[in-house]
């Protein structure tokens, strides 16, 4: 039972997930949820890369996806550390209330 | 609380299903591959370049209904999880739904023959990164009381967000639908060795340590910087001040010097 998925279906799934990620990053106020939406978008991009790697019989896409995962890990670590730092000083994680640069 | 437990149980069931189904699929696939590629390899394989994309093959293969059902079942789980992530008020629920999405995506990766990436997805994403998120949720335990607050200013922003997202989705899908070529991800045109080699740890590792060694090392440097940056950022400010004071005063010089000076 080897799978036979068409590339457009895979790309459509990636597009839908990416769109959900963008909507989440734009409409939510909680910084944690925004970070999660960014992770979602990175995963959708990974899915697209892997689908093309499968279509082109090329393992290079897998190395790219591997690097994307590593970068996502670094981004999550630093982003969450920033969030914890802001929470420590401002006692909030709402993006509407983090306006220090404005004042 | 019971709701969270139900979600956790469902996610656990999903994860167990993945663990049970994946090896069976792989073993099954081996048998099928042997049958398909034993004597009848498609002529498109001969030139070796993009056999699936070559448009002049007489009968473009269509995906089977069974494969589509499996694919969209798993993909639908991923989409539902993603929707739950951006609509739930409680961050813990959102994190758990995101874990479910990642597990479902790992199954899709297996269907795309990216076995190594599927394992990495489960270990790194569903394991490590999500644990990090859970820890931060525990520190910042603020449930949004007004996730969908009714203020015209925020509603404008949200309207723009939703409109942009919907526009993007419509554009994506129309472009995909308009693409004339049927890019079937079939196994025709794959030699048996290539099929067994594709997407394995060995294949990806060979590429990473030969052709893409520099990006690989750059990633290691990036991770090191991220670790140090996260430590510096998340450390309490009082402690930093104390350490500076202690370093300044003659009595407390011994302790901070160990970590700081060298």
For this entry, give a set of tags.
A: 103 residues; mainly alpha; 3 helices; 76% helix; elongated; B: 262 residues; Four Helix Bundle (Hemerythrin (Met), subunit A); disordered C terminus
Concise structural overview:
The complex is a heterodimer of chains A (103) and B (262). With 103 residues, chain A is mainly alpha-helical. Helices cover 76% and strands 2% of the residues of chain A.
Give a verbal description of the structure.
The complex is a heterodimer of chains A (103) and B (262). Chain A has helices at 7-27, 31-56, 60-90, and one strand at residues 5-6. With 103 residues, chain A is mainly α. Chain A has a single domain (7-90), classed as Helix Hairpins. In chain A, helix 1 packs antiparallel against helix 2 (31-56). The longest helix of chain A is centred in the last third of the chain and has 31 residues, at 60-90. The radius of gyration of chain A is 17 Å and the shape is elongated. The model of chain A has no long low-confidence stretch (mean pLDDT 87). With 262 residues, chain B is mainly α. Chain B has a domain at 1-38 and 60-142 and 159-189: NADH-ubiquinone/plastoquinone oxidoreductase chain 6, subunit NuoJ (Four Helix Bundle (Hemerythrin (Met), subunit A), Up-down Bundle), CATH 1.20.120.1200. Helix content of chain B is 72%, strand content 1%. Chain B has ten helices and one strand. The longest helix of chain B is centred in the N-terminal third of the chain and has 36 residues, at 2-37. Chains A and B meet through strand 1, helix 1, helix 2 and helix 3 of A and helix 1, helix 2, helix 3, helix 4 and helix 5 of B. Strand 1 of chain A pairs antiparallel with strand 1 (184-185) of chain B.
Set down the secondary structure blueprint.
The complex is a heterodimer of chains A (103) and B (262).
Chain A: E1 5-6, H1 7-27, H2 31-56, H3 60-90
Helix pairs in contact in A: 1-2, 2-3
Chain B: H1 2-37, H2 65-87, H3 91-111, H4 115-139, H5 152-178, E1 184-185, H6 192-197, H7 201-209, H8 213-234, H9 237-248, H10 254-260
